[in-house]
Amino acid sequence: MSVKQHAEAAQEFIRDEARTDWHDETLWFVRHKRDKAVNTLPEWEILRDWASRIKNHTLSNLDYYLRNFEEKAASNGIIVHWASDTEDHNRIIHKIIADNKIDKIVKSKSMLTEECHLNEYLQNKGIQILDTDLGEYIVQLRKESPSHIVLPAIHLKRQDVSETFHEHLNTEKGNYDPQYLAGSARHHLRERFIESDLAITGVNFAIAESGSFVVCTNEGNADMGVHSAGIHIACMGIEKLIPKTEHLGVFLRLLARSATGQPITTYSSHFNKPRPWQQMHVVIVDNGRSRQLGRADFRNSLKCIRCAACFNTCPVYRRSGGHSYHSTVAGPIGSILNPNLDMEANSDLPFASTLCGSCSNVCPVKIDIHEQLWKWRQVIVANGYVDKGKKAGMQGMAWVLSNPQVYRMAGKIGRWIMRTFPFMLNNRLNVWYKQREMPRAPEKSFRDWFKENK
Amino acid sequence: MNARETILKTVAMNKPELTELPDMDLSLTIQYPDLIQQFIGIMEAAGGKAYYENSRQDLLNDIAEVKAEGKFMINLLEDSNAEEWASLTASELEALDTCYLRAELGVAENGAMWISEKQMSNRLLPFICQHLVIVLDPGDVVNNMHEAYRQIDATAEGFGVFIAGPSKTADIEQNLVIGAHGARSLRVYLL
User: Fold this and answer.
1) Window from A126-130, A205-209, A251-255, B77-81 with minimum mean pLDDT
2) Which of A338, A358, A386 is the last residue of a domain?
3) CB spacing of B171 vs A243 below 8 angstroms
4) Which residue has better confidence, B85 or A63?
5) Is residue A50 included in any domain, yes or no?
6) Helices (H), A321-436
7) Looking at the structure, do residues A281 and A364 belong to the same domain, yes or no?
8) Cα–Cα distance, A446 to A440 (Å, whole number)
9) A254: domain CATH number?
10) What's the pLDDT score for residue A386?
11) Does A26 share its domain with A71?
């Protein structure tokens, strides 16, 4: 397998300690902003409960809502397409581009098109797409992938951005001012918006009863693209549906507060009908979601609204970086979504967690993320997708832990070795010694202490 | 079987047992003692600037100043040429400096304002202008998003948007930069 496993990739990420600390602290700062925003609403837990139940209901009647959405959207003049997998999705979009002889395309943030590797697919056909979200624009210029679904360039420092812009936009070398850098991108991208013929966006929420959809951005890039271009293509997973417009009240209150600590994104755009001279397409994508719907233990991962609160709170994500998850959606939610897409390739991800449960606590739609991580581990082991070393270790551990006498003996030996021959543990062969000190071994076990002191 | 049928069939087969929608008691949602104060505070925290006390005169001065500078402006507050703006393309609007328009409603909890397609006349206007000026009737400020959706008809027209501040980004090291791709500033006149 050519893709590095999470632990291996994370090892590279943390080599630069100062940078790792910065990454950790920056994301914790975002998490802190989320807490402040959440605490302004006494009804926060009620909103989470409503959101969770609305999504549960939608999933329990999803075929009805999909048909409902399709019918209403079509009657509003929107052309609806269906894609079973990434190949379907990419082919549909390519056909629209080819049929209309388009060559200037802008795209706002859509994790689904990342999941489908749309840019690469079109590039192989000689078609260039320009990502217009500033973070995505930066990583696209660097030929990288987003490391975070809301903050795509969070793994980069201003110096990195400055160098990239100097190379591609001819900005001043050594000018690290974010205002200057963002301003240069604005200037450059304005021209591209104005000349674009086709704009691709994601979908935050699709409303079944009206056949309309909502796109949220802070930068205004989605709107600049779609209102300039003659063709708008919006791509959505089947799980983006909500039944009614009034439900937007719940989700728009939760989304930005959970994501960045803002009370709402700058723009929440509601698309109902194309302009008279405009084509509007919606591509509805399955790509494994209907299969996930059938996995009782994992189906409620489909409630996700992609706020990334679970990323920002996760001690493993913050200290290992998004790229170590080798997937479009990283973090805790990615670790429960990706094994459904390819269990073998993503068998390492559910283990990239301490199971501390913080992800589940911040989730605005109450997905039991840490429980699903634990359940995926069992499914992955049962399917034989763990390496032999880990399997043997776990079996050995299980044997020791289920035999009290063996356990006590092992404890005694362990403590004796730690005290008498510390070098046997404090060496490079012991993975627990890496970047850590071993603890001081106590004189006796808790059991012995308790017997004496009870 | 085509993709549509396959997807719908698999979803129907795999979906869990039907659960009910929650009965949402909106009396449990936040109400503010002073709607206007809350609205102004949160809107300005998002980078906007509010005018309330002398808003009528301030707005006249605002328009006069922009006019005097000779920049390209579109004033939809008093303009009878709304039809004419509707058909302008992005390249024709590229140089637009300031756009004045009226919002239908404001939301105290987050400073967002609802602008329907009719009010913006051309979907590009609130985004492509360098500076956006919104006029809002203080009587049209509601507590929260639930009340907002009760009051507006979000699907009555082809397009509509909640705008809460000037465009912004924090994609470079989480540093807030006002003026990403949409308007670089937002002034709101409550009158």
Assistant:
1) B77-81
2) A386
3) no
4) A63
5) no
6) 331-341, 358-362, 369-382, 388-402, 404-420
7) no
8) 14
9) 3.40.50.10420
10) 85
11) no
Q: Chain B residue with minimal CA distance to A251?
A: B145
Domain tally, chain A: 3
Quick one: pLDDT at residue B123? 97
Both A209 and A305 in one domain: the answer is: no
Q: How far apart (Å, rounded) are the C-alpha atoms in residues A237 and A112? A: 7
Strands A267-271 and B159-163, by their bridges, are: antiparallel
Range of the domain at A403: 391-453
Which of A370, A386, A402 is the last residue before a domain boundary?
A: A386
B30 pLDDT higher than 90: yes
* B53-81 average pLDDT score: 92
| A263 vs A416, more confident | A263
Residue A3 sits in the same domain as residue A148:
no
Rounded average pLDDT over A51-66: 98
Whole-number average pLDDT of chain A? 95
Q: How confident is the model at residue B80 (pLDDT cuts 50, 70, 90)?
A: low
Q: What local confidence, expressed as pLDDT, does residue A1 receive?
A: 44
**Residues on chain B touching A147 (C-beta within 8 angstroms):** none
Sign of the four-CA dihedral A292, A297, A300, A301: negative
Is residue A47 assigned to a domain? Answer: no
Q: Identify from A32, A55, A264, A275 which residue to disrupt to test chain B contact, counting B C-beta atoms within 10 A and taking the largest count.
A: A264
* Contact between A248 and A257 (Cβ < 8 Å): no
Has residue A378 been placed in a domain?
yes
| A118 and A192 share one domain | yes
Question: Is A282 contained in some domain?
Answer: yes
Res A96: pLDDT: 98
The residues spanned by each domain of chain B are: 32-190
Confidence check: pLDDT of A435 > 80:
no
Around B187, how many Cα atoms within 13 Å sit in the side-chain half-sphere?
Answer: 18
Q: Cβ-count burial of A355 within 10 angstroms (0-12 exposed, 13-18 middle, 19+ buried)?
A: middle
State whether A165 and A73 are in the same domain: yes
The pLDDT, as a whole number, for residue A2 is 55
* Cross-chain residue pair B127–A132, CB shorter than 8 Å: no
| Contact residues, chain B, for A138 at CB < 8 Å | 171-172
How is domain B32-190 classified at the CATH fold level? Answer: Rossmann fold (3.40.50)
Strand partners for B142: B107
ipTM exceeding cut-off 0.85 for this assembly: yes
